[in-house]
Amino acid sequence: MTAAQLVQRIAWAALALFLLAFIVLEVINHGIPALIAALVFLILPRLVGARCYNVAHRAWIPLAILVVYSFGVLGDWVPIFTAGLGWLAHIAIERTFVK
Prior knowledge:
Distance between the termini: 10 Å
Helix content: over 70%
Number of strands: 0
């Protein structure tokens, strides 16, 4: 592993920890629906078939969900936001530990 790869893994690990802490904060503030959405999207990208695997592991998709939600376009339903957090956390965790 090169130094650049090590730095990338450390950055992905830091992002994963931040996102997991943010999920905990949102669950504390908004309850069970936020928890369910976050857990489903933490696990769901791993369960998709091989055909959809690459699409489910593109970081820009959950990031776009988070940005669009932040501008109020998707409404005020917090489980959408925690689903995006969970999905992005899943990607960050996999990019930290896989390969």
